[in-house]
Amino acid sequence: MGSIRIDEALKRAKELLKRVSERPLFEAELLLAYALGKERVYLHTHPEAEVPWHFWELIDRRAAYEPLEYITGKVSFFGQEFLIEPGVLIPRPETERLIEELVPLLRGNERIVEIGVGSGVISTILKLKFPNLHIVATDINPKALALAKKNFDRFGVDVKLRLADLAEGVGECDVIVSNPPYIANNFPLSPNVAKYEPKEALFGGERGDELLGRIIGLFLQSPAKILACEMGYDQKMAIQKRFENFDGKLAFYKDIAGLDRGFIARKR
Ligand SMILES: C[S@@+](CC[C@H](N)C(=O)[O-])C[C@H]1O[C@@H](n2cnc3c(N)ncnc32)[C@H](O)[C@@H]1O
């Protein structure tokens, strides 16, 4: 496509994204603003301006189901803008609930281990809220650790990173927090997730809750007092079973869609 005005380009791009997006015009606008290096409002104040050719490459990528966040390299989470890259899970809005549930239980100076740091969003928000927390964050994916480091630097927070299975070699802590992979291996994912997002961030085993089970086992044997985890909407009973003889408090929370989404376990 040669020279074409912004308003016409948006109409065409909207049609091209209809199949892959529930908000095709909005996404077309975000991609065009990104291609132009401008704010979205510019599109409406300059409808006659010319569209750069590489905008259509971005539209092609999105039309092939590549997530918008991987194309723009940005994702918003808990009101902040984080960097995101292919090979690292795109943080989901429901994970904000995990932080909201944990924050009221913290004094602000605890030793925390985050298992499965991904892009670093959970540890960053916790550190922004409580700068005196001591956080060590782990992941088995070196790409995730590298990106988490970039995000920690971006926000100026001091979080130690370790390439480790769960919390291996990390030492004692007061709180364990994790949004682990919890989807069953054979679960049919939507094409944008299946094709582009890292498998080790999604799949938790044959049933899905196997990694959660390992994290719970670790917590029960450790001196940590609190475990806060995200989980699958259908895993409440399986998690309850894993805490059958637990001499403490186990509370589940829901996401904004009203689905069971996580739990907090507190030892006496
Ligand atoms: C669902 S993602 C969560 C990422 C990030 N915390 C978030 O909420 O967006 C799960 C993360 O756990 C990591 N992971 C998977 N298995 C792991 C293990 N055995 N030990 C440590 N991290 C693991 C994955 O690489 C991935 O980054």
Summarize the helices and strands and which ones pair or pack:
Blueprint: H1 6-17, H2 24-36, H3 41-45, H4 54-63, H5 68-72, E1 74-77, E2 80-83, H6 95-102, E3 111-115, H7 121-129, E4 134-139, H8 142-155, E5 160-163, E6 175-178, E7 183-184, H9 191-196, E8 203-205, H10 210-221, E9 226-230, H11 236-242, E10 248-254, E11 260-267
Parallel strand pairs: 3-4, 3-6, 4-5, 6-9, 7-8
Antiparallel strand pairs: 1-2, 9-11, 10-11
The site of S-adenosylmethionine has 23 residues, from α7 and β4.
* Low-confidence segments: none
Number of strands: 11
Can you summarize the main beta sheet? 7 strands, mixed
Helix content: 25-40%
Count of the domains: 2
Based on the structure given, which CATH architecture of the largest domain is correct?
3-Layer(aba) Sandwich
Q: What is the element string, with H for helices and E for strands?
A: HHHHHEEHEHEHEEEHEHEHEE
What's the arrangement of strands in the largest beta sheet? 5-4-3-6-9-11-10
Instruction: Output mean pLDDT.
Output: 96
Strand percentage, roughly?
15-25%
Q: What's the level 1 CATH class of the largest domain?
A: Alpha Beta
Radius of gyration: 21 Å
* Ligands (ions, cofactors included): S-adenosylmethionine
**Looking at this structure, what is the CATH superfamily of the largest domain?**
Vaccinia Virus protein VP39
Distance between the termini: 66 Å
Give the CATH topology of the largest domain. Answer: Rossmann fold
Q: Which geometry do the CA atoms define?
A: elongated
By secondary-structure content and strand pairing, the structural class works out as alpha/beta
Instruction: Figure out the total of helices.
Output: 11
